[in-house]
Amino acid sequence: ELRALDGLGVSWVRCNFAWFDLELSPGEWGFEGTDLLVDRAEEHGVNILGILGGSPTWANGGNPPNFPPTDMAAWRNYVRTVCSRYRGRVAVWEIWNEENIAAYWAPGPDTVAYTALLEAASQEIREVDPGVMVMMGGLAGVGIEYLYSCLELGAADYIDAVAYHPYPETLGSGDFRPQEAWSRQIVSYMRRLISSYTTKDIQLWITEFGWTTSTTIPPGVDYQTQADYMLRTLISYADTDLDRVFWYSLRDDANGSIDRYGLLKNDFAPKPSYHYYAVFQNVFGGAVSPEPGGVSCYCSRPGTLEAHCFRRGDGSLAFAAWKSDDGVDELSVTVSDPAYNRLLVVDPVTGERKPVEEASRDAQGKLSVSGLSLGRTPLILEARVVPTYSVTVTTAEGHGKVEPSSQVVLEGDAAIIDFIPDTDYRVASIIDNGVEVPVSDPYVIDGVVDDHEVVVTFKPDRTAFFFAEGYTGPGFEEWLTLANPAEEPTQARITYMFRDGSTQTQEVSLGATTRQTVDVNAAVGPGKEVSIKVEADAPIVAERPMYFNYKGAITGGHDVVGCGS
């Protein structure tokens, strides 16, 4: 189980140090299990919140463990022995669990008895481990009246923290959704209640909350709903002054149990909630404070909009929004500070970040986006300030344009450069920061991480050649010689153009690094005045040799390379 925690970024676990497990009979201790637990937790860098409670039959009048001890001397000895053994290795001791319900304090809740037990435990702990935190047992539900009674009896003098367990079914509304606003109001009320009895800086923790994926009892939910509700609740509580929150639990009990609150199934297979928890830790774990003005947002039904923004230690913003009624809506978001230049959306399953492509600058220069889908699952965004780099492009010899000639690119983005050669010109070479790169149009620089100076050279496009002069009359021999210097074959297309406006075409295959000779006289017939156009799928060389014997008086020949325009 501790290995499973490694992938979650978890730094705390809550574990039982049950009296009835550790001291089976007076003075007969068995610490093998808890020793192993503490050792392994230290190896994994995890803090322990230890629960003290659960009386053995020999110390509570022969009753089950949910009965409080009748032998207070034995209780004090248990607390002293356990806390001495793990001095400096357990960070917090929680005294009992859900003592405000009969299931854990039989035959029924008793604030006087519990406060006396709490006082005795606190005294023993302070003597053997003065630096450790002492916490009141986590109250089932909210337990306002029970807490009030304990505070009236002086419980604040014995503790450093109060804890409660606000499962949705215990909040009294009958609504098994997260009830975010109501839950935050409870936090505020608990704070006010505690501060009305003490000036001590008593922390407020939630040491259990969750949704079971068992379908046999309410509020059983499916795996995806569990993940959504958990993530929503964690984000909502992060926007309060709670000191710490624990999800119950890491792993399901046996498959037949209703206790299926785990992030993992009983066989350690992860539920969606396992991945959502890891993403919460990754995105919001680095938050240093709420930032309510960091982002402004709007949707069609603002009364059911939950939106929370936090500033993280690196200065970036983490933002989440959803619909508290699980309904569907669209969200518009504007980042308040124009200094932020990158808006990312975070996948709650994988944690993958992707730029919000639709984001743009509004009239005030603020990042803004509209039409984001919103519903039950939290939409998670990050706003960052990332470095920018300049990409400039120049032409070496003219004969074309580039668009854009300069641009500012955010770190990690792509720079895209379009080339517009003059007619009958092509991109001949691209030099990027002094290094020649393969020619491509457009030229794309992926993942920009520094400035770029790009130089492009345009050259005549020799894939089309024109020959105006040509004659196949008596005494004249006209030829075409075609060379393919490339390593790949290509196809040449010859168009013969005659005085009367008619044309004739011919296809010639050019193998890699080969030459072909075309007999024009044979191709078009004798006595033709002909102009020629040669086109190819790749750069070639086209020449036209001409040999003549004009009436026996003038003989000779000449050769030209075709004109490119």
Q: Could you say how many structural domains there are in total? A: 4
Specify the biggest β-sheet.
7 strands, parallel
The low-confidence runs, each spanning 5 or more residues with pLDDT under 50, are none
Principal-axes shape call: elongated
Mean pLDDT: 94
Approximately how much beta-strand content do the residues carry? Answer: 35-45%
**Neighbour order of strands in the largest sheet:** 1-4-5-6-7-8-9
Q: In the CATH classification, which architecture of the largest domain applies? A: Alpha-Beta Barrel
Tell me the helix content.
10-25%
Can you identify the CATH class of the largest domain? Alpha Beta
- CATH-derived topology of the largest domain: TIM Barrel
Tell me the Rg in angstroms.
40 Å
How does the helix and strand content classify structurally? alpha+beta
CATH superfamily of the largest domain: Glycosidases
Number of helices: 10
Structural overview:
It is built from ten helices and 35 strands. With 565 residues, the protein is α+β, with helices and mostly antiparallel strands. The model has no long low-confidence stretch (mean pLDDT 94). α8 (223-238) runs parallel beside α9 (272-284). The strands form eight sheets. Strands 1-4-5-6-7-8-9 form a seven-stranded parallel β-sheet, with helices on one face. It has a six-stranded antiparallel β-sheet with strand order 10-12-13-19-15-16, with helices on one face. The protein has four domains: 11-249, TIM Barrel (Alpha-Beta Barrel), CATH 3.20.20; 290-384, Golgi alpha-mannosidase II (Immunoglobulin-like, Sandwich), CATH 2.60.40; 388-460; 464-561, Hypothetical Protein Tm1070, Chain: A.
